[in-house]
Write a structure and sequence with these properties.
about 350 residues; about 35% helix; alpha/beta; 4-stranded parallel beta sheet; 13 helices
């Protein structure tokens, strides 16, 4: 006999056409999803909702007392099938600052190594009644598959070359706080576009928010028909950076490459590595971004990366914790309302 757990009903919605209904609708958050599996499908209003929420957490994180009790008694499990430092630590900090009990699963020592399938793992974890699963997986679509077999909120921390939604959100927050807007900006995303989930999520978000996006890479590192995403594809770094407001560099993802897609690291840096000389083609106040990990002397010159007037790389790290706090808050809204 299967036992079904039922949750308390949400409070009844005010009757349509009343003043109370209008006020409730105005106060209702735009993002009302249980999961965050990708940027694809999110509206501009949903993205703005998450960014606005994250803005408040930025200020909280700069105070000496950073801890809230928003997720007190809730359990967050970080389930990372790929190595991660920044993202996993960021989610762990975000969960703890919201008061959650955070568990980091050591996948290298888990039953997955012994042959357990992803669905078996999902059903096992589901039986433990977690409230949030944060999942990174090397296969595209794996996180969405897992989400169909659990009752808790699921957040995609990166799946294959598919998406990395919280990275795109933190990049957007960094841009908005530095530039005051996203709409109308020219953003050049440079590097290994072909294998980058960060590039895909950023393209989707930036286009939704009204930015003009260029992707800059050698032909071997550009996906086929990338223009169908609404971007301009450029194979010359000088032309790609022309009048750019934002220059976002990506690393070469050698672990995902099959065969040699660039002649040599030295030659790649010569043509596509960001230097102050190449940066002259962009606007004088162009902002430099990089999602990390960063390979100095490969996709970016160390002097450029450390330029305190132009580089927003450390800002991105700071925004990452705030954005992940916002996503944890937003995806557990319904759960908290039912408590």
């Amino acid at each position: 006999m299967i036992r079904v757990t039922t949750f308390a009903r949400l409070p009844p919605r005010p009757r349509a056409g009343t003043i109370a209904a209008a006020m409730a609708l105005a106060n209702e958050p735009a993002f009302a999803r249980q999961h965050l599996l990708g940027i694809e499908g999110l509206s501009a209003a949903e993205i703005e909702d998450l960014l606005d929420l994250a803005d408040g957490f930025v200020e909280l994180n700069r105070q000496s007392e950073k801890k809230l009790q928003l997720l007190r008694g809730r359990t967050l499990i970080n389930l990372f099938f790929e190595p991660s430092t920044r993202t996993q630590t960021s989610f762990e900090l975000a969960g703890k600052r919201l008061g959650a009990d955070v568990v980091n699963m050591a996948v290298a020592r888990s039953s997955v190594v012994k042959g357990e399938t992803l669905i078996d793992t999902a059903m096992t974890l589901n039986a433990m009644h977690p409230d949030v699963l944060v999942v990174r997986h090397h296969e595209s679509g794996a996180v969405a598959l897992l989400a169909r077999h659990v009752r808790c909120a699921v957040i995609n921390a990166g799946d294959g070359a598919h998406e990395h939604p919280t990275q795109a959100l933190l990049d957007a927050l960094t841009i908005r706080r530095r530039k005051g807007r996203i709409a109308g900006l020219v953003v050049a995303i440079c590097g290994d576009i072909l294998h980058s989930r960060v590039a895909r999520s950023n393209i989707l978000l930036l286009r939704t928010m009204g930015a003009r996006v260029r992707v800059v890479a050698p032909p071997t590192l550009l996906p086929r028909a990338v223009e169908s995403l609404g971007v301009e594809a450029v194979t010359d770094m000088q032309r790609g950076l022309e009048d750019a407001d934002i220059v976002m560099m990506l690393r070469l993802q050698s672990e995902r490459m099959q065969g040699s897609l660039v002649p040599s690291v030295r030659e790649y840096f010569h043509f596509f590595g960001l230097t102050h000389e190449k940066l002259r083609a962009a606007k004088p106040d162009a902002m430099i971004m990089h999602p990390g990990p960063m390979n100095r002397g490969v996709e970016i010159d160390g002097v450029v990366a450390d330029d305190i007037n132009r580089s927003a790389i450390l800002d991105q790290v700071e925004m990452g914790v705030a954005v992940r706090m916002a996503v944890l808050d937003a995806t557990t809204r319904r759960l908290r309302a039912q408590a």
